[in-house]
Write a structure and sequence with these properties.
The complex is a heterodimer of chains A (330) and B (290). Chain A is mainly alpha-helical and 330 residues long. In chain A, α5 packs antiparallel against α10, α6 packs across α8 and α8 crosses α10. The radius of gyration of chain A is 24 Å and the shape is globular. Helix content of chain B is 70%, strand content 0%. Chain B is built from 12 helices and no strands. In chain B, α3 crosses α6. The longest helix of chain B is centred in the first third of the chain and has 37 residues. Classes of the chains: A mainly alpha (330), B mainly alpha (290). Chains A and B meet through α1, α6, α7, α8 and α10 of A and α4, α5, α10 and α12 of B.
Chain lengths: 330, 290
């Protein structure tokens, strides 16, 4: 099993390097940091612009190879370079990374667990009303883009606050930002405040993940339910629930492990919408703003972040795969 | 004892199965209605999507403006219909390109094998690794001010890989079947075999895939346009409308909820059709909503 995992890890690492390099090269060639200075009045002298761009390693007069080499050298030392405003990318990164991870982690954990549970339950109760409600839910949810869902949840939250009479600064569910500014973040009050900021955005991510995983888990489980080994398990006297969980669910989880890895990059996209709409200053917002600002180094840094997340998700799903399917371990 | 069995072609069998699904048929009818509405809408009202009504700013739905107006005096109905036209075209065109690409790449890689296979599989793996949303965003300055067709091509370019993998796998096994052998020994060239014998045998997969792709491409367009990385003004799509008016959705709901509602209805209809097709092609599959 160790050899299998080691091989997978090496493969995933190569993919991270490739994805990030391609993203850097595309960003460096397609984005135009120079445009930031072109619109100024009076126009700054070319030498000044070049010096400013050289300082942040974004001068398009420097050969691409040199710029890329310099960037890679920095990344190898843990330095992601300077933003277009000539501040360290690392600072920005550090400020934002936990904001996004918190959102994504909660969304994923709730989404996968509840989704798998709902899908498996639906398959066992096929065509009963509970199954129909669950499939209808996931079918409709999968047709609603995350952007629209985030707006709907936000508006519902605001309406709910108004309805319950939270008109002042204190709200039941907050819809902007990740914390009310000025609160001590580690006091009891601060933690409660954070949590009530967290509810709606994580709900958006969790609901779409539940719909997604639920739908696929139901199909995977249905395939397993008719199998011979499940009948054998029942025939040798295992109680129904134990047979379903130990032999049914375990087998049906194997294809889901692969989905999990693929789905993770999409989760980041979902988090981007959620951050933008709920006013969280996370990595998704950082990416969108950086593309708009032609900030090459920040764009590359966020892509690396996403690639590493996908690597972790891919590796976790490989571990799950190896644990669930004994054939991989030999 | 030989009773003549009436021969039923697979196509008509599938068609018969599909016609039995009332929900999927409803989806088809609804989609056609949306199509007609989107393209006939300029005849229905006197307001066009790029026309300002300087006497009505931010008015709620009324007889003159069915879906109300925006802050600048644009007619929301005309905007929504125009947006839906764009979304439909992007979805259909993109699905056609991506499914076509998946079919050709998958079949050629599987049939010819060798170096071509290595090359194409490498390409598939590379594109699968690249996060499509991020890459298209980065490339968006390249198609600013140019035709939106480049945007459709990019959307399709990040959509086809998984299907191509499946097609390749199916081609590998079809390649060893007698009818393919027979064609090959008769001297039919490989590319002809692919189009005449291999692809028709994976048609069911391709049809389902194309349908599913329409809705995922429409959703991808909405996501990218929301951030301004997709369809560019003065063009409108459902994505740009949702992006522009999501902020004021609480105070002036008509600007946001009409485009969003039509988007959801559109995607839902396509998904229902895709589901019905999947059931019709595969009699063993349990329909998810039936």
């Amino acid at each position: 099993m160790a050899r299998f995992l080691l091989r997978r890890f090496a493969y995933l690492l190569v993919l991270v390097v490739v994805a990030t390099s391609v993203a850097y090269v595309l960003a460096a060639t397609q984005l135009n940091p120079r445009s930031r200075y072109e619109g100024r009045n009076p126009p700054p002298p070319p030498a000044v612009v070049d010096a400013a761009l050289d300082a942040i390693n974004m001068n398009n007069k420097t050969p691409l190879g040199t710029r890329f080499g310099r960037w890679v050298g920095g990344v190898a030392r843990g330095d992601f370079g300077r933003t277009i405003d000539n501040t360290p990318v690392n600072d920005e990164f550090g400020r934002r990374v936990l904001v996004s991870l918190r959102l994504m982690l909660i969304g994923t954990v709730f989404g996968t667990l509840l989704g798998v549970a709902a899908g498996a339950y639906g398959a066992v109760r096929q065509y009963r009303w509970s199954d129909r409600v669950l499939t209808l839910f996931s079918f409709v949810t999968l047709s609603i883009p995350v952007v629209v869902m985030a707006v709907l949840f936000k508006n519902a939250g605001i309406e709910l606050n108004n309805l319950l009479g939270f008109a002042g600064d204190t709200k039941l569910l907050y819809t902007t930002g990740e914390m009310t500014p000025g609160l001590d973040s580690w006091s009891w009050e601060g933690i409660v405040n954070r949590l009530s900021h967290l509810v709606l955005p994580s709900l958006v991510l969790a609901v779409s993940a539940i719909a997604f995983y639920g739908r696929y888990q139901r199909n995977a489980m249905l395939d397993v339910l008719g199998s011979d080994f499940l009948r054998t398990a029942r025939a040798k006297g295992l109680p129904r629930t134990r047979a379903l969980i130990k032999h049914g669910l375990r087998t049906a989880l194997i294809p889901m492990a692969t989905f999990f890895a693929y789905q993770f990059a999409l989760l980041f996209v979902g988090a981007t919408f959620t951050e933008k709409i709920f006013g969280w200053h996370g990595m998704g917002e950082y990416f969108v703003d950086s593309v708009t600002k032609n900030d090459v180094n920040s764009v590359a840094a966020v892509t690396l972040f996403v690639a590493i997340l996908v690597l972790i998700a891919g590796f976790l799903s490989d571990i799950a795969y190896a644990l669930l399917d004994p054939r991989v371990r030999v | 004892m030989s009773t003549a069995v009436p021969t039923v072609s697979r196509a008509s069998l599938v068609a018969r199965q599909f016609l039995r699904k009332r929900l999927a048929l409803g989806g088809v009818a609804f989609l056609l209605a949306l199509f007609a509405l989107a393209y006939l809408s300029p005849l229905l009202t006197k307001w066009q999507y790029d026309q300002l009504d300087t006497t009505a700013f931010l008015t709620p739905p009324s007889v003159g403006h069915w879906f109300g107006t925006t802050q600048n005096g644009f007619d929301v109905f005309a905007l929504t219909m125009r947006g839906m036209q764009k979304s439909l075209v992007i979805g259909l065109l993109g699905a056609l390109i991506s499914t076509g690409l998946a079919a050709v790449v998958g079949a050629f890689a599987g049939y010819f094998g060798g170096r071509l296979n290595t090359l194409l599989v490498g390409l598939i793996d590379l594109l699968l690794v690249l996060p499509g949303f991020l890459i298209i965003s980065i490339l968006s300055p390249a198609f600013h001010g140019r035709t939106w067709l480049i945007f459709v091509l990019l959307l399709a370019a990040f959509q086809w890989m998984i299907t191509a993998r499946i097609v390749r796998g199916m081609t590998l096994s079809l390649k060893e079947r007698e009818f393919v052998h027979a064609a090959r020994f008769m001297g039919v060239p490989g590319s002809r075999i692919i189009f005449r014998h291999i692809l028709p045998n994976v048609a069911s997969l391709l049809i389902i895939d194309a349908t599913v792709n329409v809705s995922s491409l429409i959703l991808a367009e909405v996501g990218l346009s929301f951030f301004g990385f997709g369809v560019q003004p003065p063009d409108v799509s459902l994505g740009t409308l949702i992006g522009d008016y999501s902020g004021s959705s609480l105070s002036y709901p008509w600007q946001f909820y009409f485009p969003a509602g039509f988007l959801i209805a559109l995607v839902l209809a396509i998904n229902v059709i895709g589901d019905g097709l999947r059931d019709a092609f595969d009699p063993n599959a349990g329909g998810s909503v039936s």
